[in-house]
Amino acid sequence: MLFSASFLFFSFISGGFIYYATDVEYNLNQQIARGYISQNAVFFELHDPSRLRTGKTTILSDGVSVSSDWDNEGFKYVDLRPQAAEDSNYVINNEKLTNGLTKLEIMLSSGGNDYIAAVHKGELRGIYFNGKTIIPPITKGRFFTSDECLSREHLAVIGKAFQDLTFEMDNKTFIEYCGKKYEVLGVVGIADESSLDHLLFVNLGSMTPEEQIHGRLYVDGNTSMENIISEIDKNAIVLFGVHIDRLPIPQQYVDSVTGGLYLKTYLKVLLFILFIFLYISVIIQFFKQNINKIIVLNICGISFSRGIIFITGRVFLFSILGLFVGGLIDITLINISYFTLPFNILYTLVLRFWLIGLVLIVMLVLLEGIGIKRIDIKEAIRVI
Questions:
Q1: For the chain, which residues make up each domain, given as ranges?
Q2: Is the pTM of this model over 0.85?
Q3: Tens digits of residue pLDDT in 240-272
Q4: Is pLDDT above 90 for 94?
Q5: Residue whose C-alpha is closest to residue 347's, from 24, 89, 90, 121
Q6: Which residues, 6+ apart, have CB-to-CB distance to 42 below 8 Å?
Q7: How far apart are CA 283 and CA 290, in angstroms?
Q8: What do you get for the CA distance between the two ends of the chain, in Å?
Q9: Quick one: which of 169, 160, 217 has its CA closest to 191?
Q10: Which of 59, 120, 303, 380 could link 216 by a cystine bridge, Cβ 3.0 to 4.6 Å?
């Protein structure tokens, strides 16, 4: 039983940490492959009534419309003839208002709290964020503050591939990009090479009104963006007189296997159920193996507190030992760079599992103590 308790908590902190860290690393790799854009992101653009819309009608070679996408020869024919614009005179006017902000800056900052918004132009990102949200990992320096995002200063956080283009001036680091000089606040990236190395983040306020409206827009965060995108859409109608059109999120190769995450969710539930089953089994084994000791201690008049320490003390020590050894294995894996996650994330995970394991051990001892107190000694003697 002592070995079972020790092995249970050894497995909890070592196996649980390895599985969870692998899961976090997998999701982070997906996010990084998209340029640090999560699956919660919503891409959109301002609806432009002056744009010619392309027809999507599927037709046969003789011009007859059909419901099927494919004809008998296996070829697909699509009507690409442009349709008339809704309003050929409409122009997106991203002027500055009396508060000094452009219409687009007001729109993107109107979503509420805990999200990041950006103008996405290839390797360039014009950034605004508010509250706790998804911030790219920093290897040197720092990221923008929320107030700096709407500042007219030219600020940048660069990928590692841009470091060779920087220069020093007045004890500060700068980079010139598209004819503009930006002060470099930090460098984004991870230990290995990644798509982050080739990104250049600038504060949204450093972009001209024209630059802000020529690019895809997106919002992203740690939770669903539906409420935030709804508020932005309302403000788009007020500021620009048009709603927003959603766009597909950029897809990478790793996204083709995201369906496996559903299986992972079920696997997490199964592992949790298995752990609870083993946890209860340890408690049952404890009473089966120690019932005679409990009876003897009670007959000898040993106090309840002394009896608890005598009977449950070894269970507690062996459980702590398993937790400690498992934690050492986790730290060893971190130090040999088994995972590519940043060290601060990994050590936070280890600490979290260790604290949860300690709470579970204390609960185990308390449950055993409550069980001992509720034992009917006379009935236990009669059964034996």
A1: 2-30+258-383, 36-50+85-250
A2: no
A3: 999 999 998 765 544 444 444 444 567 778 888
A4: yes
A5: 24
A6: 218, 219, 220, 225, 226, 229, 246, 249
A7: 11
A8: 20
A9: 160
A10: 120
